[in-house]
């Protein structure tokens, strides 16, 4: 909404609160101001644009989080698969060692199996 500089200059003169020179300086000062008023409609439009941009950003962020979750799930599945393959390989090797060791060395095999259980989990079996 523009400022009526003429009205702004006349009122202080009429009220006797300032001289004509002071009123003129006030009018010049006010006319030099670049006053941009925002209407309610303009503010509503701005709010709508911001809301839309925030919604778009939230959508993009949600999509990125979903892709990241999928990546984590695939990595977890791959880790589990590797763990299972290693466990199977250790079990095969322990079985081979059991067959090669004399009967009195079962405690040694049990100790090795316990160590492997600590490393890869409770899937290793003992004799």
Summarize the structure.
The chain has 127 residues and is mainly alpha-helical. The protein has a domain at 1-37.
Q: Write down the overall geometry.
A: rod-shaped
Stretches where pLDDT is under 50 for at least 5 consecutive residues are: none
> In oligomeric terms, what are we looking at?
single chain
Rg of Cα set: 41 Å
Main pleated sheet: none
Descriptive tags:
127 residues, mainly alpha, 4 helices, 79% helix, rod-shaped
Description:
- It is a single chain.
- This protein is an all-alpha fold and 127 residues long.
- Helices cover 79% and strands 0% of the residues.
- Helix 1 (5-15) runs antiparallel to helix 2 (20-32) and helix 3 packs antiparallel against helix 4.
- The longest helix has 61 residues, at 40-100.
- The chain is rod-shaped and about 120 Å long.
What is the topology?
Blueprint: H1 5-15, H2 20-32, H3 40-100, H4 106-120
Helix pairs in contact: 1-2, 3-4
